[in-house]
Design brief:
The protein has 125 residues and is α+β, with helices and mostly antiparallel strands. It has one domain: 4'-phosphopantetheinyl transferase domain (Ribosomal Protein L22, Chain A). Helix content is 42%, strand content 28%. The chain is built from five helices and five strands; from the N terminus they run βααααββαββ. It has a three-stranded antiparallel β-sheet. A hairpin with a 5-residue loop joins β2 and β3. α1 crosses α4. The longest helix has 21 residues.
Amino acid sequence: MVVGLGVDLVEMARVERLLARYGGRLLRRLMDPDEADRLPAPGPERVRAVSLAIAGKEAASKALGTGWSRGVRWRDIVVAREPEPEVRLRGRAADVARERGSSGRTRTRLAIDGSLAIGEVWLLR
């Protein structure tokens, strides 16, 4: 059973500009060290991976019904792309999921369509 659903679109050109301007500082704000270490080397594949991660994190925050409020932080939502796309909740995000009646499990779809990264996250009971 679905407890929450979130969808988000991210412009990859915008992420490319943010990475060029803020680089590691941006990644430290969005991701824990393990998540950031799994990113490809700088270049187009990194832009793609960060865009998908942002789309997944935003979609998860919407599925939780909080956005980036009630103590939910970017680093409380971890996006993995291998072997299958997956969003894992921890910290305050996991607490909010339990408060909503979720087990914390998610169903995730991450995709690229032209210049957009798409994230869809279903928060499951």
